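Colleagues,

Please find the record for the two-part complex below.
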Amino acid sequence: MLQTDPTVPAIELRGVTKRFVTTGGMAFTALHDLDLAVAPGEFTAVVGPTGCGKSTTLALISGLEAPSTGTVRVFGEPVKAVGRSVGYVFQRDAVFPWKSVLDNVAMGPRFRGVDTEHANTDAREWIARVGLEGFERYYPHQLSGGMRKRVALAQTLINHPRILLMDEPFSALDVQTRALMENELLDLWASSGASVVFVTHDLEEAIGMADRVVVITAGPGTVKGTYKVDLPRPRNIAEIRFQPRFIELYEEIWNDLRDEVLVSYERSKHRVAS
Amino acid sequence: MSAPSIASRRSPVTARARAAADDFDAARTRARQRRRALVQVLRVVLAVVILGTWEITTRLGCHGPDSGTCVVDPFFFGQPSGIWSQLVTWVQKGTAQGPLWEQIGVTLEETVLGFAIGVILGIVFGVALGRNRLLSDVLGPYIKAMNAMPRVVLGSIFTIALGLEIPSKVALAVVLVFFVVFFNAFQGVREVDRDLLANARILGASQGQLSRHVILPSALSWILASLHTSFGFALVGAIVGEYLGARKGIGLMIATAQGTFNANGVFAAMFILAVVAIVAEALVTRLENSLIKWRPNAITEVTI
């Protein structure tokens, strides 16, 4: 394990711009001059309207994509390729449908050169930790959406990522399952010490889970404001939203977010009309 | 997810619901059995009607030694009873080129060899070109041109170059099978879910591991779907090859029957081919089911 210098941010994006060429051949700016820093062990939530480049931010940090201009650093090192210290939970199901739960979870260590026997032992432990004991031999299509998300969590966490990137991981789940999963994620995170970037469009989820909430503008995305969430931990997601301080924060951040959501909405109406 | 408690299971309401569900299940099973029986009966009726019409029209109105006076001339169009007696003769006395089983064996050998080689080459090239943009851009037009050609004419070249024995038929079968499998494998690789690829890369997969654990399994359903058609193509390759020039095989039997104006012989050989094709189809379906058991009871229900 590398020694982490608390003064060096775990994740640092400086003046990052990302342009894509769309299938129609048009240039499209997803992010414009974005600055973002995440401290070691910090839980940061990123909120913003649809299409503001939240997912692109995660792709840049993970090394799946490279910025057009600007620098992306992880623990002070510029990101050049997919990093070994990164874990990524996708919005859609990204577990392998042709592998059993056990094989899915064991994949990370096996890709990284651990022999199958050790990888399986480790995987069984993680499967138990996310509450899926007894489902080792099942295939993903035999599981519910919430259970598949648990598989995805175990699959990511088994690699002990020091950077955990999450792209609206629970948006497809029903409300009860979602609150349950959010609490479990907080427990797992508390014992891991990882730095988290959690992308969501749900402000309640963002405030409930994070140490800090970053609001991104309607695309091209750039940081509009950051808010420290000074709510005590450990938290219970289902109940924290009734605390007066939670409501204050919600109001404050929503004032910022509302304008961006409106801009994004107007634009999407425009696109449909044209 | 806890099991329902024993108390609730014993309550009269639950018991009644359970009995109703059992009744419903039993009724559904009966309905399914009735339908299956109906399908079987209709199948037999259809065969009897077609074969019966054929047989009767080739016997109606015949007078004198000239079969041309019949409603349908059995000399040109054959006759079910004649086809049957031809099959019996082949089984009991052998064909003009030797025992029947030997002919079937030779054709099967050519078909299976051509099928196996064609499938392997198709998968290798399909995956290679699917993963390598430059390679597919360079080779793409040539492959399209070769696919657009009626490749059966290559059979003549193979007969000249490779002779009358098995290799020339295998070569023709390979050429026919290759393109079907190739295009499916290629498309299968191109359609791999981008999130799955990204996930595997984040988890630490190397390029080789990506191919083995993500791309191949994902392309497998496409490849397996192509095996159904490509076995038929392998059979076409073997038969046409034999037809163009051979010493043994079902294709040669057809050519011989044609040469002696034996319509019943041609139909009898066709019947043997149909049986071989149906057996092969069943084997491919079984292979498919065992290879992709991870798929929620896939397309297997649409079989005809």
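The domain at 94-302 of chain B is CATH 1.10.3720.10 (MetI-like fold).

Comments are welcome before we finalize the supplementary table.
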